[in-house]
Amino acid sequence: MKKLRIPFSPMVFIPFMGAAVAMRKRPKDAYEEALVAFGGPVLGSVGALGFAGAAHAMDSPLLFALADFGFMINLFNMIPLGMMDGGRICGAISPYAGLVGLGLGGTMAYHGMVHNPIFHLVLLGGGYETFMRFYDPLGHAPPNYYSITSGQRAAITGGYFGLVGALFAAMAWNRQDMMTPEQLQSQSFETTHYRRYD
Asked: Is 90:157 a contact under the CB 8 Å cutoff?
């Protein structure tokens, strides 16, 4: 954001959701907003990849679990919904991306896949933002805000799906050697059992 000269607030940590930074000025267009939104997921994914590399090198169940959580939370953040980074990125791709995000978010909420109440607030906010983009496009954003070039839209689309695909691949690679909770419990029981009889 400094490079794009967009003032921003200090980082605020949201429990079990990640961190948020509020922009104090709207970017000049949707392309610039998408570039800003890429920052969090990209850096978060690099951090999770670092944990995964360390986990494989040290064969540490804790590091495997931390890497898995890192990949998962960044994938979650890429849902094209409201103020989440995925919503801000996909806003530059298509106005219908918000409808896809609402479908995914609504399904997750209905099946109880996410229990954090903040997610339900994000879902409501995303619904309102998507509705206003169709109902009052001029009031939702400045004129020509979403009028970006086809090359910019293609770059954002490729970056979005490339990052999502990379996160799925990294999570699959990490889980090849990660023990399940049942395996960890069994290993802990065996270690305790042997110690008692040593």
From this structure: no
